[in-house]
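We modelled the chain as a single entity of 439 amino acids. Its sequence is:
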Amino acid sequence: MPVWSLHGNGRTVEPGKVVAPTERLNWGATAAIGMQHVIAMFGATFLVPVLTGFPVPTTLLFSGVGTILFLLVTRNKLPSYLGSSFAFIAPVTAATATAGMGSALAGIVAVGLLLAAVGVIVQFAGLGWIDRLMPPVVAGAIVALIGFNLAPVAWTNFQVQPLTATITLVSVVLFSVLFRGFLGRISIFLGVIVGYVVALLSGEIDFTAVEQAAWVGLPEFQIADFTSPQTWGVIAMFLPVVLVLIAENVGHVRGVATMTDASVNRHTGRALIADGAATTVAGFFGGSGTTTYGENIGVMAATRVYSTAAYWVAGATAILLSLSPKVGELFNSIPAGVLGGVTTALYGLIGIIGIKIWVDNRVDFSRPVNQYTGAVALVIAIAGFTMQWGDFQLGAIVIGSAAALLIYHLGNAIARARKTGADDGGPIPAVGPLGGDPE
């Protein structure tokens, strides 16, 4: 694994140049940029455990551990921060409600193992088989249905404190259009701060747990439950998330390659293996599933510093923050109204990313197969379809994803046989991560 060479004078980045992954600035500047990466990821990362009921310190711990693991697996050549993925929110929410947190953690572990397995195949065989399995119309439908499936959850929280929720939602939207660059990318985080202040002034926050929590202490751990009869039914609803994580990681690698060196694309398989390993470790011990982060891509683009040294600093900082139970309880004190406002925007944005895949790839919706691939999948997700056989239950995400894949591939097979016009799609689109604010 290469060590970092000093870039230039170690203090500045020359015009038209970038600090490569195997370079670094002086350690003071590197530490400052690493801290900036923590700030960039923080707003989105803490929301996932708050929304799913997972311990915030545990999620932060495995976010930092996952980032360091990612750097090791990719041989220190691919800069990335692994934060909480919003793609897990819907299956985790459904799983904890029906089978408990242990089963939900088992689902996260299953996703991590499958993603790592896909990474091994990609490392040796390339991405062509994924392109054929998940063309843009299918990828867009699966990403969109994960976001839209969460709409009832947002509405439930919104109704608890509608005024606070409305102010939070308006703040998120305003910050996204008022500011450019970094501040615009963290509009969701800023909206949460505004909503929290409003809730504080309205007397909607209880600080009892914050006051009682220790300043320093180990995070809370919980082991994934693979023994419960309900677990295997729960795992099925997590599997579509693998397709989203593939698209996110591919998009991240392509983004870094575009801004640094095309040879970075050779590490796509390792990136998938690394994220899979990080997700597996997190899920096994009580943390949220991980993914690469768009916010951190934004920081790299703004600073022109792609040094992996900064991410070692960011990972270590996240681990240190996780050792404060008081920090975790502070985030747990965020009231339902604030969560309702921010998730109304956030869950919708996840859905819009899926639709953007259709737009960017010019999916032809004059073709019946494409029409039904998207239409059926989205209605299944929004309505919350379920199927159950005894203790085994399939939720809307897995049903909708299966519907999209079956309608597209079987429909096109019939269309080719009948010569009525098949649409065989194109390569997998590189999408922005679902783990944070839109760019």
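As a brief sanity check on the tokenised model: The first strand starts at residue 5 and ends at 6. The first helix runs from residue 27 to 52.
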